[in-house]
């Protein structure tokens, strides 16, 4: 069984998780591999990772997300997260990863945020 789901919303690759708790080492390896494989399918250099339904994840999963972020940066893919539960957000805040990751509230807002330009854009 796949660990993630992927679909396109317009030109943005939206990936989601099939598990509500990502704790098992083997499953984390599978999730990590599938996420990294998905980066190459983000044809328009935009990827959104939707955490809807994910209530818990282990620290090993956090490592996979950091690796995903680095891989996206190296390949020029813009990565954003959305619908992060309060439990998972707490872990991001404790590890200060909420500063590293671009975390949006809902999927609709996150999708729209890809079109917004920065200060100089």
Molecular structure report:
It is a single chain. With 121 residues, the chain is α/β, with parallel strands linked by helices. It has a single domain (4-113), classed as 2-Layer Sandwich (Transcription Regulator spoIIAA), CATH 3.30.750.24. The protein is 43% helix and 23% strand. The protein is built from 5 helices and 7 strands; from the N terminus they run βββαββαβααβα. The protein has helices spanning 25-39, 59-75, 86-94, 97-100, 107-113, and strands at 4-9, 12-17, 21-22, 46-50, 56-57, 78-82, 103-104. The strands form 2 sheets. Strands 1-2-4-6-7 form a 5-stranded mixed sheet. A two-stranded parallel sheet has the order 3-5. A hairpin with a 2-residue loop joins β1 (4-9) and β2. α1 (25-39) runs parallel beside α2. The longest helix has 17 residues, at 59-75. The termini are far apart. The mean pLDDT is 93.
Q: Describe the global form.
A: globular
CATH class wording? Alpha Beta
What would you give as the CATH superfamily? STAS domain
Low-pLDDT segments, ≥5 res: none
The CATH architecture comes to 2-Layer Sandwich
* Percentage of residues in DSSP E strands: 15-25%
SSE succession: EEEHEEHEHHEH
Q: Helical percent range? A: 40-55%
Q: With helices defined by DSSP (H or I, 4 residues minimum), what is the helix count? A: 5
Structural class: alpha/beta
List the helices and strands and how they pair.
Blueprint: E1 4-9, E2 12-17, E3 21-22, H1 25-39, E4 46-50, E5 56-57, H2 59-75, E6 78-82, H3 86-94, H4 97-100, E7 103-104, H5 107-113
Parallel strand pairs: 2-4, 3-5, 4-6, 6-7
Antiparallel strand pairs: 1-2
Helix pairs in contact: 1-2
């Amino acid at each position: 069984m796949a660990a993630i789901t992927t679909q396109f919303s317009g030109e943005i690759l939206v990936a989601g998780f099939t598990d509500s708790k990502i704790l098992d080492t083997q499953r984390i390896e599978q999730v990590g591999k599938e996420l990294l494989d998905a980066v190459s399918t983000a044809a328009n250099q935009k990827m959104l990772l939707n955490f809807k339904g994910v209530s818990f994840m282990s620290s090993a999963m956090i490592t996979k997300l950091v690796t995903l972020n680095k891989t996206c940066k190296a390949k020029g893919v813009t990565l954003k997260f959305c619908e992060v539960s309060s439990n998972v957000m707490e872990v991001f805040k404790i590890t200060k990863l909420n500063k590293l990751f671009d975390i949006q509230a809902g999927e609709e807002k996150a999708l729209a945020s890809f079109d917004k330009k920065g200060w100089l854009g």
